[in-house]
Description:
Blueprint: H1 3-28, E1 46-49, E2 56-60, E3 63-64, E4 71-72, E5 81-85, E6 90-100, E7 104-116, E8 136-144, E9 160-168, E10 170-171, E11 178-183, E12 190-200, E13 205-218, H2 227-245
Parallel strand pairs: 7-10
Antiparallel strand pairs: 1-6, 2-5, 3-4, 5-13, 6-12, 7-11, 7-13, 8-9, 8-12
Amino acid sequence: MTSVQKLSAKVATFAAVLAVSALSSNVAHAASVANGGFEAGLTGWAVVDQPSSSGSWFSTGGGGSPQSGFSIPAPSEGSSYAVTDQFGPGSHVLFQDVLLEAGSKHTLKFNWFAQDTTNSGPIDAGTMTAFGGANQHFRVDLVAATFTDWFGASSSNAGVLANLLAPTAQGSTVSGFNTTTFDLTPWAGSTVRLAFREVDNQGFFQAGVDGVAVNSSATAVPTPALLPGLIGMGIAALRKRKNEGVEQPSEA
């Protein structure tokens, strides 16, 4: 085997090791959402309903809403999703804590709709309580993992790390889902609480959530795609060394 062939083999081995390292790093740094497609009902999620509220979050396959029977869309993916429904005023939270590994980029994606059958929203009272002024909307927030003040006087913004979806409401009847993405990288290295929040006291309101996922990617490292360049650089360096080692003829 020539010197060039030996060098090429060494570079190829080095690139392969880096590629395996990159794949392992992506796995180690992946953030995951449990049951983000709600195919296992609401397993993996926590539900909090304001005391004295009517309704809650439910698992559904679409068609008719679980309690009031209003028409709602089919799932955006799979066979089920999460939705709110009620017979009277209420405020409802669906949340999950997500660990965002350090040293990675994290992008959140979720599908949603906010069907306000009264066509009166969004109405934002600056709080998430259903038992005060008019309040009719759906919002999505990122809060600290210790956050519990869901329905307090300033619960719209108190303790919120980031508002991922501003208070919103769509008219009836909603025919499908919207998709929102949000960069969670600023919170890498911590555990955050992803909260879907709906409040209603003007009439029936169905908020739907599906396809919740976090896509994580580690810092890029050289892969086999860079192999030709690495080999070329190595060969050039080898030839330079050989040329420098050739004895120059002396002048007569």
